[in-house]
Design brief:
This protein is of the alpha+beta class. It has a domain of 35 residues. Helices cover 31% and strands 19% of the residues. It has a four-stranded mixed β-sheet. The chain has a two-stranded antiparallel ribbon with strand order 3-4. The relative contact order is 0.15. Pfam families: Methyltransf_11 (PF08241). InterPro entries: Erg6_SMT_methyltransf, Methyltransf_11, SAM-dependent_MTases_sf. This is Methyltransferase domain-containing protein. GO terms for molecular function: S-adenosylmethionine-dependent methyltransferase activity.
């Protein structure tokens, strides 16, 4: 794959490797990794629960998963830049995508906040979302949320009082059995 070649050519460092594989059937032994990164992936796989089981399996005792995920209840669906696409029933989402000329089939399967919480229920969840939105400069996210802006103030408020409405989440997942 081209992305694998680009990563190997441009990001090569000692001790760092890039591989392409099936996230729902990894070739690694159980307890192989200290850290697993799952950034905006769950909505792209056929079975998100199987993805979580595999990450749980390959995570070493004491390890953690960086998990960032979009919320189904987002206003603008980022893959197609279409308002409300992710909240529509599947048949209507397919039709909306076709009518917009941006595709034939809506493959992404976003979960709501509560669906995501069910998905990661085997883990202890440390939610960084409110922290990042309240202090974007500390977490180097000023490019997305300008500190002191109305957008930042509204986002911080929503993440504190209506977390289920935030368009995306950043969580650290730990296995309670591994702590």
């Amino acid at each position: 794959m081209k992305s694998d070649i680009v990563c190997k050519d441009q990001l090569s460092k000692e001790g760092l490797t890039f591989e392409i594989g099936d996230a729902m059937n990894m070739k690694y032994e159980a307890n192989s990794f200290d850290v697993v990164i799952c950034s905006q992936v769950y909505e792209h796989v056929p079975d998100a629960a199987m993805l979580m089981q595999e990450m749980f399996r390959v995570l070493k005792p004491g390890g953690a998963i960086y998990f960032s995920a979009g919320n189904r209840l987002m206003f603008n669906e980022p893959h197609y830049n279409l308002p409300l696409l992710s909240v529509l029933p599947r048949p209507l989402a397919h039709l909306y995508l076709k009518m917009s000329g941006r595709g034939d089939h809506y493959y992404e399967k976003h979960f709501t906040y509560w669906g995501l919480k069910r998905l990661v229920r085997a883990f202890e969840v440390i939610d960084y979302t409110p922290l990042i939105l309240s202090k974007p400069e500390k977490y180097k996210t000023e490019y997305m949320v300008k500190p002191g802006s109305n957008k930042q103030k509204i986002a911080a408020f929503i993440s504190k009082y209506m977390i289920w409405l935030v368009p995306g989440y950043i969580w650290i997942l730990k296995n309670p059995d591994h702590i």
